[in-house]
């Protein structure tokens, strides 16, 4: 059984000012942000570029799956979920996926609200995993890898203090190592498809031979 790989992406696609706090008359506070920008290729690390295709998260957004919002990816600082009261709201547009999360009246919620007001927290991030055959990896003539994510599963989205890829585990690995793992996955897929094709061809040839023998008999 394949190991599920959950990846974090800080939204360097969007300007750091695309997050704010909303105070309503009923005293409920919200954090609004752009979580994912679609169809915009960005350089995550030297030699590696990535973009997320519009529609990659459609399946999760259209069903009743629970998606969560944490502060700094910390499950101990949960802000809301799509099933909580009040609920996390996800607004899917042609350009991006926006979120509107209620801020709970907890100690970390109050800390987040103060930091949002002071502009100490100015970024967003999300956690996801790529579905089977859900990405396309190519390498151009300059040796730069380009990865397009076409189908993925969304788990969590929310505000982060440091929206920079330098804080992610993935950047601590070399681009060659990272892309090497991806290429191994693609090679495995291709080998499986080739084996299946050869099996189908062999079965077809066998059927032909049996048909010829039956006709002769």
Using only C-alpha atoms, the radius of gyration works out to 23 Å
Distance between the termini: 47 Å
| Low-confidence region ranges | 12-17, 165-173
The global form is elongated
Listing every helix as H and every strand as E from the N terminus to the C terminus, the arrangement reads EEEEEHEEEEHEEEEH
Number of domains: 2
Mean pLDDT: 78
Q: In total, how many beta strands?
A: 13
Strand proportion, as a percent range, falls in 35-45%
- Could you estimate the helical fraction of the residues in percent? 25-40%
Largest sheet: 4 strands, antiparallel
Subunit arrangement of the protein: single chain
SS-based class: alpha+beta
How many DSSP helices?
3
Keywords:
217 residues, four-stranded antiparallel beta sheet
Could you explain the architecture of this structure?
It contains three helices and 13 strands. It is α+β, with helices and mostly antiparallel strands. It has two domains: 7-163, no CATH class; 173-217. The chain has a four-stranded antiparallel beta sheet with strand order 2-3-9-8, with helices on one face. Strands 4-5-12-11 form a four-stranded mixed beta sheet, covered by helices on one side. A hairpin with a 3-residue loop joins strand 8 (89-92) and strand 9 (96-103). The longest helix has 42 residues, at 175-216.
Please outline what is shown here:
By secondary structure, the protein is an alpha+beta fold. 27% of the residues lie in helices and 36% in strands.
């Amino acid at each position: 059984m394949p190991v599920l790989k959950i990846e974090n992406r800080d939204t360097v696609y969007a300007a750091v000012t695309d997050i704010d706090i909303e105070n309503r008359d009923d005293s409920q506070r919200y954090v609004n942000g752009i979580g994912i920008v679609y169809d915009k290729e960005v350089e995550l690390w030297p030699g590696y570029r990535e973009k997320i295709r519009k529609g990659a998260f459609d399946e999760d957004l259209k069903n009743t799956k629970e998606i969560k919002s944490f502060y700094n990816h910390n499950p101990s600082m949960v802000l809301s979920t799509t099933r909580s009261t009040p609920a996390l709201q996800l607004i899917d547009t042609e350009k991006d996926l926006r979120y509107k999360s209620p801020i709970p009246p907890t100690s970390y919620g109050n800390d987040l609200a103060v930091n949002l007001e002071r502009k100490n927290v100015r970024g967003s991030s999300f956690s996801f995993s790529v579905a089977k055959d859900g990405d396309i990896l190519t390498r151009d003539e300059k040796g730069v890898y380009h990865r397009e994510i076409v189908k993925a599963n969304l788990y969590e989205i929310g505000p982060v203090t440091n929206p920079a890829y330098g804080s992610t585990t993935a950047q601590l690995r070399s681009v060659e190592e990272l892309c090497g793992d991806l290429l191994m996955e693609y090679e495995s897929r291709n080998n499986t498809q080739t084996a299946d094709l050869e099996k189908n061809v062999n079965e077809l040839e066998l059927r032909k031979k049996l048909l010829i023998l039956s006709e002769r008999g």
